[in-house]
């Protein structure tokens, strides 16, 4: 009987020594990893915010992907910045979407959007933004560019027609003039 109890106790000890470290190792992947924007993207966001006179982005930081730039007032009035934080073992984030809709922004459309190389969407619908569409937008792999209902002037730069990934281009209700660039017709993914 004592031998059986000793063997049982020994088996339990072996189980604890072998399996507990394995289980703990499995849970180590669930640890908290800081998901941060590169400092360059923080500086770009600060420049964009200043150019647009955006009072809703008061605390731009490396940790802004955690939701500090997102505010919803109604379904048509909101600030939303989305990031992809899957880089460098989920410790580095990059801005992929910027939506600033109906916020009465009165600044100038900044060329610095093109410095966000992972950016896929710019939606500045229903503001009072002026200036012209920067030619540098043609360097970004955007899928959505919406400037609906602003005070954008000048002509549509031919570089917009070079964005092969573009699916939605919404420019109505602005002060745009001049002919449409011919290469807009070559955008095979364009649905709107």
Please give a handful of descriptors for the protein shown.
192 residues; alpha/beta; Leucine-rich repeat, LRR (right-handed beta-alpha superhelix); 2 domains; six-stranded mixed beta sheet; three-stranded parallel beta sheet; signal; LRR_Rcpt-Like_S/T_Kinase; Leu-rich_rpt
Strand order of the largest sheet: 1-2-3-4-6-8
Shape: globular
Instruction: Give the topology string: H per helix, E per strand.
Output: HHEEEEEEEEE
Cα separation of the termini: 81 Å
Determine the fraction of residues in helical runs and give it as a percent range: 10-25%
- CATH fold annotation of the largest domain: Leucine-rich repeat, LRR (right-handed beta-alpha superhelix)
- Just name the CATH architecture of the largest domain: Alpha-Beta Horseshoe
Total number of β-strand segments?
Answer: 9
Total number of domains: 2
Largest sheet: 6 strands, mixed
Please tally the helical runs, counting DSSP H or I stretches of 4 or more residues.
Answer: 2
Helix-strand category: alpha/beta
CATH homologous superfamily of the largest domain, by name?
Answer: Ribonuclease Inhibitor
- Content of β-strand: 15-25%
Q: What average pLDDT do the residues reach?
A: 86
CATH C-level of the largest domain: Alpha Beta
**Uncertain parts:** 13-31
Gyration radius, in Å: 25 Å
Signal peptide: 1-25
Membrane topology: Single-pass type I membrane protein
Subcellular location: Membrane
Main location: membrane
């Amino acid at each position: 009987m004592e031998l059986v109890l000793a063997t049982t106790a020994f088996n339990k000890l072996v189980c604890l020594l072998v399996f507990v470290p394995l289980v703990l190792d499995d849970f180590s992947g669930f640890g908290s990893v800081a998901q941060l924007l590169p400092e360059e993207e923080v500086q770009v966001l600060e420049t964009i915010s200043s150019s647009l006179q955006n009072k809703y982005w008061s605390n731009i930081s490396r940790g802004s992907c955690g939701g500090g730039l997102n505010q919803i007032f109604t379904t048509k009035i909101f600030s939303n910045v989305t990031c992809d934080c899957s880089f460098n073992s989920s410790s580095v984030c990059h801005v992929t979407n910027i939506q600033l809709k109906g916020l009465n922004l009165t600044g100038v459309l900044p060329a610095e959007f093109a410095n966000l190389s992972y950016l896929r969407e710019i939606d500045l619908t229903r503001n009072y933004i002026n200036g012209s569409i920067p030619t540098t937008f043609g360097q970004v792999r955007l899928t959505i560019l919406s400037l609906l209902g602003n005070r954008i002037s000048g002509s549509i730069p031919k570089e917009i027609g070079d964005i092969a990934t573009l699916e939605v281009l919404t420019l109505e209700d602005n002060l745009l003039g001049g002919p449409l660039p011919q290469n807009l017709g070559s955008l095979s993914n364009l649905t709107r």
